[in-house]
TrEMBL record:
<keyword id="KW-1133">Transmembrane helix</keyword>
<keyword id="KW-0653">Protein transport</keyword>
<dbReference type="GO" id="GO:0042147">
    <property type="term" value="P:retrograde transport, endosome to Golgi"/>
</dbReference>
<keyword id="KW-0333">Golgi apparatus</keyword>
<dbReference type="GO" id="GO:0005789">
    <property type="term" value="C:endoplasmic reticulum membrane"/>
</dbReference>
<keyword id="KW-0175">Coiled coil</keyword>
<dbReference type="GO" id="GO:0005484">
    <property type="term" value="F:SNAP receptor activity"/>
</dbReference>
<dbReference type="GO" id="GO:0000149">
    <property type="term" value="F:SNARE binding"/>
</dbReference>
<dbReference type="GO" id="GO:0006886">
    <property type="term" value="P:intracellular protein transport"/>
</dbReference>
<dbReference type="GO" id="GO:0006891">
    <property type="term" value="P:intra-Golgi vesicle-mediated transport"/>
</dbReference>
<keyword id="KW-0812">Transmembrane</keyword>
<dbReference type="InterPro" id="IPR038407">
    <property type="entry name" value="v-SNARE_N_sf"/>
</dbReference>
<protein>
    <recommendedName>
        <fullName>Vesicle transport through interaction with t-SNAREs homolog 1A</fullName>
    </recommendedName>
</protein>
<dbReference type="GO" id="GO:0006896">
    <property type="term" value="P:Golgi to vacuole transport"/>
</dbReference>
<dbReference type="GO" id="GO:0016236">
    <property type="term" value="P:macroautophagy"/>
</dbReference>
<dbReference type="InterPro" id="IPR007705">
    <property type="entry name" value="Vesicle_trsprt_v-SNARE_N"/>
</dbReference>
<keyword id="KW-0472">Membrane</keyword>
C-alpha cells in the first residue's frame, strides 16, 4: 500500500515542479504562447488534483497506527497545491489584463485599477477557499477518528469471539475427558466384579472337591 502512495507522491512532485516552472514563465511569453501555456497549466493542475485524490484514497487504506505520517504529508501537498492554484490565478489575471488592454486599448491607470480589484477578489476567494479547506480537513480527521474507533471496536469484538470459542473448546474437551474417565472407571469396576465372581467360583469349586474327597474316604 505505501509503495503505491510513494509512486503517486513521486509523480506529484515531478508534476508540481513542471507547473511551477511554467507559471513562472507565463508573464514573459508572447501572447500566443501564453494562451497555450495557460491551457497546458490548467490541464496539469487537473492531473495534480487527481493524483492528490488517489493519494488520499491510499492513505485511508493504510492501518491507523501508520497513517499519521502519511496524513501530515498529504496536508503539506494540499497546501502546496493551493499555493500553485493561487500563483496560477495571479498569472491568469495578469494575462487577462494584458489581453484586455490589447483588445480594448485601456490606458495604464484603468488596467491597474482593474488588476487591483481582481487581486482583491482573488484574495477573498483564497480566504474562502482556505476556510473550506480547513473545514474539509476537520471533516476528514473526524472521519478518520470515527473509523479508528470502529476498527478498535471490531478488534475487541473479534477478541471476545475468540475467547468464547476457546471457552467452548475447553468445555468440549472437559466433557470428552469426563466421558473417558467415566468409561475407565466403569471398566475397572466391571473387572473387579469379574475377579470377585471368579474367585467365588474357584473357592466353591475347591470346597466341593474337598467335600467329595472326604466323603469317599
Amino acid at each position: 500500500m505505501s509503495s503505491d502512495f510513494e509512486g503517486y507522491e513521486q509523480d506529484f512532485a515531478v508534476l508540481t515542479a513542471e507547473i511551477t516552472s511554467k507559471i513562472a514563465r507565463v508573464p514573459r511569453l508572447p501572447p500566443d504562447e501564453k494562451k497555450q501555456m495557460v491551457a497546458n497549466v490548467e490541464k496539469q493542475l487537473e492531473e495534480a488534483k487527481e493524483l492528490l485524490e488517489q493519494m488520499d484514497l491510499e492513505v485511508r487504506e493504510i492501518p491507523p497506527q501508520s497513517r499519521g505520517m502519511y496524513s501530515n504529508r498529504m496536508r503539506s501537498y494540499k497546501q502546496e497545491m493551493g499555493k500553485l492554484e493561487t500563483d496560477f490565478k495571479r498569472s491568469r489575471i495578469a494575462y487577462s489584463d494584458e489581453v484586455r488592454n490589447e483588445l480594448l486599448g485601456d490606458d495604464g491607470n484603468s488596467s491597474e485599477n482593474q488588476r487591483a480589484h481582481l487581486l482583491d477578489n482573488t484574495e477573498r476567494l483564497e480566504r474562502s477557499s482556505r476556510r473550506l479547506e480547513a473545514g474539509y480537513q476537520i471533516a476528514v480527521e473526524t472521519e478518520q477518528i470515527g473509523q479508528e474507533m470502529l476498527e478498535n471496536l471490531s478488534h475487541d469484538r473479534e477478541k471476545i469471539q475468540r475467547a468464547r470459542e476457546r471457552l467452548r473448546e475447553t468445555d468440549a474437551n472437559l466433557g470428552k475427558s469426563s466421558r473417558v474417565l467415566t468409561g475407565m472407571l466403569r471398566r475397572i469396576i466391571q473387572n473387579r466384579i469379574l475377579v470377585v465372581v471368579l474367585a467365588i467360583i474357584l473357592v466353591v469349586t475347591i470346597l466341593m472337591a474337598v467335600t467329595f474327597s472326604v466323603r469317599r474316604h
